[in-house]
Amino acid sequence: MAGNAGTDAVILVGGQGTRLRPLTLSAPKPMLPTAGLPFLTHLLARIADAGISHVVLGTSFKAEVFEEHFGDGAELGLELEYVTETEPLGTGGGIRNVLPKLRADNIMVFNGDVLGGTDLGAILDTHEFTNADVTLHLVRVSDPRAFGCVPTDEDGRVTAFLEKTQDPPTDQINAGCYVFRREYIEKIPVGRPVSVEREVFPALLAEGARVQAHVDSSYWRDMGTPEDFVRGSADLVRGIAPSPALPGQRGEFLVHEGAGVAPGAVLIGGTVVGRGAEVGAGARLDGAVLFDGARIEAGATVERSIIGFGARIGPRALVRDAVIGDGANIGARCELLRGARVWPGVQIPDGGIRFSTDV
Predict the structure, then answer these.
(1) CB burial class (10 A; 0-12, 13-18, 19+) of residue 129?
(2) How far apart are CA 215 and CA 180, in angstroms?
(3) Is 29 a residue of the active site?
(4) CA separation (Å) from 258 to 8, 75, 255, 279, 305?
(5) Each residue of 131-178: pLDDT tens digit?
(6) Is 131 exposed, middle or buried (0-12, 13-18, 19+ CB in 10 A)?
(7) Which of 29, 62, 101, 164 is catalytic?
(8) Is-contact 119 139, C-beta < 8 A?
């Protein structure tokens, strides 16, 4: 779809990823391996697929990591540029901060935390067809209470921006993808923190700008929490979430080259085994995300958990709904459940943490 060459993309990747600690102590969230690729790769591949070639990354936290990995973007068929915030400017300020790098009349802005499957070309078509000043991608969700709701009129124009509420009037939520006419980015105040949701969008409505909605029910997940990160990764492996960066067969697991999986190990639920990782005999991995070099010893069980780079889970240990930091060592027969987080390099002795009474 080369028809969108007149559109620039902006990806906001400045967040600190605090909800995913301790994994984000060493790498920014958009660089964490998701189905074996840095999370951001999936979004960049979708942008390239939509025929957009010029992409500007708005970075702040560990900014240098992005350029070290992606360089000028040529490998993905993109032209990548980077702008680093020296102090946090919020979503609106982050967009305004990259303005000097933007060339096109239409700017498509992405929240770098979202795993999505919507047709980006269709959002741009809506923007053009309705002659909108700003177009928002809205997605319908079964429980909108945790999100900002965005009601629209019969023509699909946005009528309000509502904060999270226990009694939402609509199931349409802000999906974190916007198309701006360039002059509306120019209007965002410069040099101070600005929120698009709380300040920019309400001001646009107040001044009578045409704020249009593109509503669909496509795949959508904010990858901010360990639970969502695990589910999003599994959805990519199983083909529930689409990604042009993942060619080939989908299934219950993805094992990367150089990994070793012993006979009798069970891998289900969209499990990912990273490069050089080892899975011992009789281990059971259900919806597990193993980063490169992780080791799961014989008879251990890992369910819906993230195991950091080079971490080790001892024999017959149980890790469920937990995050294990890089290089941590969990002893034999330990039980880590329900939101446990182990910091990088921590050593837990055999049987050192239990939830049940038997040892």
Answers:
(1) exposed
(2) 16
(3) no
(4) 38, 23, 9, 12, 21
(5) 999 999 999 988 888 887 888 998 989 988 887 777 788 888 888 899
(6) exposed
(7) 164
(8) no
